[in-house]
Amino acid sequence: MKEKKILLLDISNKVCPMTTVYVRNNLDFMENGEKLIVTLRGKETLNNVKKSVEYLGFKIFEEKTIDLEDYLYQVSIIKIHNT
């Protein structure tokens, strides 16, 4: 069985709406079963990225706060499609 990649994306220095563009670009090139771990800054960015990811049909399997004082969060996404 082939090991699936885990991709890392740090968009903590990017601002909306470009944050969702960077995430979407990575998701578009992922294979089924691959994971993308996104580090981002700000509650608004977190909410926008989550909505975008879910709208596109991807699954968020983990969300955590990295640094509450600096508003850093991490969202882990997996590509699961039945195609």
Summarize the topology.
Blueprint: E1 6-10, H1 18-28, E2 35-41, H2 43-55, E3 59-67, E4 72-78
Parallel strand pairs: 1-2
Antiparallel strand pairs: 2-4, 3-4
Helix pairs in contact: 1-2
How does this model look, in words?
The chain has 83 residues and is α+β, with helices and mostly antiparallel strands. The protein has a single domain (6-78), classed as TusA-like domain (Translation Initiation Factor IF3, 2-Layer Sandwich), CATH 3.30.110. It is 29% helix and 34% strand. The chain has two helices and four strands; from the N terminus they run βαβαββ. The chain has helices spanning 18-28, 43-55, and strands at residues 6-10, 35-41, 59-67, 72-78. It has a four-stranded mixed β-sheet with strand order 1-2-4-3, covered by helices on one side. Strand 3 (59-67) and strand 4 form a beta hairpin. Helix 1 (18-28) runs parallel beside helix 2. The radius of gyration is 12 Å and the shape is globular.
Task: Give a quick precis of the structure.
The protein is an alpha+beta fold. The protein has two helices and four strands; from the N terminus they run E-H-E-H-E-E. The protein has a four-stranded mixed beta sheet, covered by helices on one side.
